[in-house]
Structures are given as C-alpha cells and as structure tokens.
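Interim report to the steering committee. The following record documents the input for Zinc-ribbon domain-containing protein (235 residues).
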Amino acid sequence: MTCKKCNAVLQEDSSFCSNCGAQISSENGELIAATSQNAPEGQPIRKLSPTVSRLLTVSIIIIVVAVSTLAYFNYFTKEAKAKLTVNRYLSAIKNGQSTYSYRSIDVDDFINVIDYKYLSKTDEDYVERITHYNFDKKWYDQFEKQRYSNFQDFIKHQREFFASSAFNNSTFKSKTISDTSESLKIDVTKKVLSFQLMYDVQVTNQLGQLSYRKAKFTVDEVDTDKFEIHDYDTN
C-alpha cells in the first residue's frame, strides 16, 4: 500500500506517511489530507465574489476615512489645539506642575483642580488684543543695553520700527501714546483667533473644601498654531 501523495510504501496501522508526513486513513490506508491546510488536488480554491470583495473594500475605506477624520478634528484643527491647551493647563494644576506655557501672564491659576470635563465650544471669532509697551531706561538697561550703544539709539530704533509699514499690517497696528526723552509708550493691537470653551471643573478652595464650577476659558492663538489662555470666567 503506497501513499497517494508521494508514493512511499506505508506501514500497517500508520496514521501518517513516514516519508512526507501526510495523514492517512487508519481503515484503508488511503490518503485523507496533507498535513498542510492546502486545498486537495484538483479542487479549486474558493474566491470572494466581486460583490463581497467590493463591499469589503468600501468598508475598509469608510473605516480609514472615519478614523482619519476623528483624529483630524481631535488633534489637528485649531479648535482641537485650543482645547488641548486648556486640558494641559488644568492637568498641570492637578499634578502640581507649572502652567506658564499654557496661559497669559495675567491669568491667575485655580487653587487646586481635582477633576475637569470639556463641555462645548461657545464661541469662535477674531478679536483684537492690546499690549502696552513702555520703553524706558529700566527696559533698556535690563534687555537692550548690549545691542545699542546708548538709550537714545534704542528709543530711535523702537520709534522707527513701530511706525514702519513692515510692522503695521492686517494683523498688527501700533499707536504711540507718549514720546519723551525719558520713555516711549506704545500700544500694539493684534488681531487673533479666539475660542471660548466651557468646562466642568471640580476644585478646592483655600479651606480644602470641594466645589463644582462651570468655567468658560478664552483661548487665543498667539502665534501660528500656538495657543494660550487669555482669561477664564467662573461666574
């Protein structure tokens, strides 16, 4: 009795061919199936119908598009980046870390944050923010003394720069408030994209007592794709 796969002689009562390893029948010695999962010789491999194949392809495309869209709106839009700034700010307070990178210098931190939850965007618009500059002798001594030979040269440069067309454009506008021998005071108006985002925030007061507040954060795009908290309101 021989193996139908490799023609090797089979031993009686064997379950597998000793030459090729194919499984054989214990009843009549005939080859039942090879040890691999390949289809039997002469039997065609079943293929997916064109309709099923198209449906499978469309389903995969829909899933990829859905995941990509979700990732885009959660991480890459300006609104998502504004929301991420608030999340990182609240998380930093919660974990006792610095919040400097996420807020304007004028923003006072919560005393403590236990938990928080994003609720919704309540507004999105372009707004004007005004920054006040006072270029005086103290400013010169602290920041610019290495660049300019004297205080008057420094003031002259600032005066010319803020009056130039290169500075005054669709984003920035400057206005001289006062110009004396002692100082140059200028207001700079900048148009920025601003979001208002509503959060539920669980905080503690100075006595350690828990309280629940709704906090509306105003978040500005201060530079390209860089956001910071301009202020917040818990009333």
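Residues 52-235 form one domain. The committee is asked to note this result when reviewing the revised timeline.
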